[in-house]
Amino acid sequence: MVNNEHGVSRVVQHKDYYLRGGDMTILVENHLYRIHSYFFERESLFFRQKLLAGPSEDGEDRPSSDSNHYTLDDVKSEDFARFLWVFYNPKYSLYEAPLDVWLSILRLATRWGFNNVKELTVRELEKLEIECVDKISIYHEYSISKLYLIPSYISVVKRDKPLTFTEGVKLGMETVLRIADARERARQRASESGIRTPSFDDFEDSDVEVLVREVFGLGSRPTSPTPTGASAIPNGSNSSTIQLGQPPKKNNAAAASRNGVSADTTAKTSVDIMRTFTTAMGSQVSTAQSTVAGPPGKTPVPPEISPASAHSGRGGHQGPKGSARP
Predict the structure, then answer these.
(1) Whose CB among 31, 45, 152, 227 lies 3.0–4.6 Å from 77's, allowing a Cys bridge?
(2) How many CB atoms lie within 10 A of CB 47?
(3) To 5 degrees, how large is the angle CA 285–CA 288–CA 293?
């Protein structure tokens, strides 16, 4: 042990991780760790390049004594001890720890490029019950696949209360806007289905999942994990439950009108709106054909848009997005 001057905390050997058989000594805050370099060389490119690139000045392979050691700055001793627990866990494959311990491990594994340790951390986080907003924030911060967040996204979208200011700051503007977009789409499709005052409790998780995938760009189906609520409708479900995935009826003029109004915001992602739009175009072409037909004996003036081109979406001159020149 060394006593430093000017009131600085004395350096002490860590009670758990100053190992006699260790071949590398690291100073973190005021704790000396004597550990095995094998794990760090094997797992982390950071340590291979920065700490284990070559022999030390005195000829040793690497610093391995109290007076000759590496120093890790901007790392808390408590966090580093938690990180070492992954390699020196006396219970072997049993990793049971609270959320704050796994967050310490995740932080350092991400910082130093311990990819296998990060994967272990994600597996263990999936076993814990984490509040939805907190889980979304954590996974976004450490670039963990959003496929794991589908149940959390669904829960936030379906809840009655909007996000609070504190939750919005935690999630960030982009995520808040995407969640608001998903909630608005759910209300719109419910309105198109004829429900005046829908409740989010009426929506099936599988239908809200479709919206979440569209809004967050998550594709059609993940390989892992299996989303909850994506299977068949539970037994005893109410037959009046809103099915968001169903397109509006083509004969419903009011639904067609609403689709035209909202085309600027949802036409790119909503197949329902495109179907209604092409149906409306077909009716316009039929009207145009009956209007331009000349008197008997004369060749009728051809319309600008033929029924076939209107149906396929390739004929005629296109106006602004979401509309066509008559």
Answers:
(1) 31
(2) 21
(3) 130
